[in-house]
Design brief:
Elements lengths: L7 H53 L4 H4 L1 H4 L12 E9 L2 E10 L14 H84 L1
Antiparallel strand pairs: 1-2
Helix pairs in contact: 1-4
Length: 205
């Protein structure tokens, strides 16, 4: 604890600081609860999407030959018909934290010879695109969680600082100043009475 002046001005300063800490603490606690709730909600959403992706994967097993027959989903030069997806996101805000919001995933499907590919290739590509879209959405949700957890750590540190350090420390300083000022006031009264008694003694003699 830093050394403080045992004065009335310092007492007022510490009282103002304590009032500020107690005013901000509920706001920080509320933000902490909101962040925790949002993180749990996003994690639940990510699990839900992962389950949907797994369901599509099970359906896709009927078309798993796509991966064994590369020529069906590849162009003559060996590159994939379905190019990597591009994620389109908006920007959102949760408890003052900027987060990406998934909107859609865009894939490029290059032209291919319909007569040279199996009849099931279109259906297989649709399922593959759906699965990859869900994967990309999960990645955006994971980024949301990373950002919110970072803010949660900072907020939790501030809550702990106020609860466990600043408020107890400031309260203790106020208590010490009050005791000191009270002792000074008592001593002043005693000195005043002593001085008064001496004056009366001199007057009587």
């Amino acid at each position: 604890m830093a050394k403080v002046k045992l004065t009335k001005n310092e007492l007022k300063k510490q009282k103002d600081a304590l009032k500020m800490f107690k005013r901000y603490l509920p706001t920080l606690q509320l933000k902490k609860q909101q962040l925790q709730s949002e993180i749990r909600g996003i994690q639940a959403r990510a699990r839900q999407i992962a389950a949907e992706r797994d369901r599509l994967l099970e359906e896709f097993r009927a078309w798993i030959a796509v991966f064994g027959e590369e020529s069906a989903v590849k162009k003559p030069d060996g590159s994939w018909i379905l190019a990597d997806g591009r994620v389109v996101v908006d920007t959102g805000n949760i408890a003052g934290v900027e987060i990406p919001i998934f909107r859609k995933a865009e894939f490029t499907i290059d032209d291919y010879d319909l007569f040279a590919k199996p009849l099931w290739v279109d259906r297989a590509l649709d399922r593959l695109r759906s699965m990859l879209t869900l994967d990309l959405e999960i990645k955006v949700l994971e980024e949301q969680i990373v950002r919110l957890e970072h803010e949660l750590r900072i907020t939790t540190q501030r809550v702990n600082l106020f609860e466990k350090v600043k408020i107890p420390e400031t309260s203790e300083i106020i208590r010490k100043i009050r005791i000191y000022l009270g002792d000074q006031q008592t001593a002043q009264v005693v000195r005043g009475k002593i001085a008064k008694n001496k004056v009366l003694e001199r007057a009587a003699s």
